[in-house]
Amino acid sequence: MGLQQALDIFMPLIDQELRACMLSPGDGNDAFIGMMHYHMGWSDEHFRPTVARTGKRLRPLLTLLACQAAGGTPHLALPAAAAVEIIHNFSLVHDDIEDRSPTRRGRRTVWSLWGEAQAINTGDAKFVLAHLALQRLSLYGVPDRYVVSAVRVLDEACLALCRGQHLDLAFESTMEVDTDAYMAMITGKTAALLGCAMQLGALIASGDMVATERYRDVGEKLGLAFQIQDDILGIWGEPEVTGKPVADDLRSRKKTLPVLYVLGKVEDARATRLRHLYSKDKLSEADIDEAVRILDECGARQYAEQLAVHYLRETLAGIDALGAETQVAEALRELALSLVQRVS
Q1: Around 227, how many Cα atoms within 13 Å sit in the side-chain half-sphere?
Q2: Where residue 26 falls among pLDDT bands split at 50, 70, 90?
Q3: Which of 83, 212, 282, 343 could disulfide-link 133, Cβ–Cβ 3.0 to 4.6 Å?
Q4: 325-332 own/partner pairs: CB under 8 Å, 24+ apart
Q5: Percentage of residues in the chain having pLDDT higher than 70
Q6: Which tens digits make up the pLDDT trace of 226-250?
Q7: Residue 149 is part of a domain; what is its CATH number?
Q8: CA 185 to CA 164: how far, in whole Å?
Q9: Which long-range contacts (CB under 8 A, 24 or more apart) does 47-53 make?
Q10: In the chain, how many domains are there?
Q11: Phi, psi of 43 (to 5 degrees)
Q12: Alpha-carbon gap, residue 232 to 251, rounded angstroms
């Protein structure tokens, strides 16, 4: 099974399970449900059904592939796959508030349409629905003790995610951030949930928490590579592809890896100038252009790309060490490569 075949088989099943786990308009207040569906890309801002740009569904796909790699039946892991994707979307709704992001996936964010309070409530509801989704594992015949373990794995990942977000927010008020602190932050904010996605799949296949830790490790390494690539796209990505303005991360003065590389590793006037730019309350377009030029001159993009490749290689080595059936291992390898080589 190559990646394309896995996508063809699993994506419709993932979408079907996601819809089964989310409330439908007939279940109560249409606006309450509509806001959740809007963020999932299933409805427009008037809560009419639509087909909008959705997320990559990376995490649920990893769950199903990990289940198969561990010798399990992938469809049994569908509720866990849905739970991980819903948790990811819960975090994005709250993330958009905290980052003051007006758009996501080419559309207005929940908070920018309906206010911060409703967006917080929408995110909270998704958090609950993710946990209810895990309870559906019992309907698929997954043993109760596996379900209890799955809840623990998900909750530990959620706590790590919140810890990572705490660090990210704390970084906004200080210039004393180095690349080590950055790696600790993205390990929680991004890598933990990818590790969780793979561990859940393997757990449903075997029920062995200890044996599934190596799946979590592979997912976490992939998460690090994925986030570093995201940082690269946040500065050098094409707006028509990413759905965000050019150099959007610089506009919001995010301390991503390329920026921290210059601030911490480069010892000349360019680093001093970048630090000065980042001390401003708001960057002009000319400031942003200058910041990009400094990053380019200092080799920040190349540094980030090399580190992403490093974690990609560790991911690929980890996949090989799982000893999975050849076609499933190849699908995982293709997926990892596509994520680090992506342009959006």
Answers
A1: 22
A2: low
A3: 83
A4: 325/68, 325/69, 327/1, 327/2, 328/1, 328/65, 328/68, 328/69, 329/69, 330/1, 330/2, 330/3, 331/1, 331/2, 331/3, 331/5, 331/6, 331/65, 332/62, 332/65, 332/66, 332/69
A5: 98
A6: 999 999 999 999 887 776 778 989 9
A7: 1.10.600.10
A8: 5
A9: 52/105, 52/106, 52/107, 53/105, 53/106, 53/107, 53/243
A10: 1
A11: -145, 165
A12: 14
Dist. CA 178–CA 257, nearest whole Å: 9
**Predicted confidence band of residue 276 (pLDDT cuts 50, 70, 90):** very high
Closest CA to 15 of 57, 72, 62: 57
Q: Which of 34, 29, 30, 25 is nearest to 113 (CA)?
A: 34
Which of 51, 115, 129, 43 has the alpha carbon at shortest distance from 85? 129
Six-digit token string for 219: 């997912």
Distance CA 240, CA 74 (A): 35
Q: How far apart are CA 1 and CA 324, in angstroms?
A: 12
